[in-house]
User: Fold this.
Amino acid sequence: MPGQDRTGPLGQGPLTGKGLGLCGGGLGKGFGRGRGFGWRARVTQAMPIQQAQPTEKQEKQFLGQELDALKEEMKEIEKRLKELK
Assistant:
């Protein structure tokens, strides 16, 4: 833990490293005692995230389904409003 300020490696908080610092059992005795997620956090941060772009046909289909769902919800709301009057 740099500076012993309880921020953990890369400022991600305590118990996010290898467990070698004071939070993991102390002074190099932390082998196997930490949670072990620190290395994964650093690796995944370096990996770019690519989101799939839908095709025009897929987008039209999705928007049509969304519109139908909203229309159905609107009908239910109108029905409930009539019941409350």
